[in-house]
Design goal:
Elements: H1 12-22
Length: 26
């Protein structure tokens, strides 16, 4: 198990989706 698995962000599209999910006000 690697810590990279938790941050498997490789593509800009994925980062945008992850950012929206984390920055979600909900």
């Amino acid at each position: 198990m690697r810590m990279l698995q938790s941050v498997h962000i490789k593509t800009p599209g994925e980062m945008i989706t992850w950012s929206f999910q984390t920055a979600s006000p909900v």
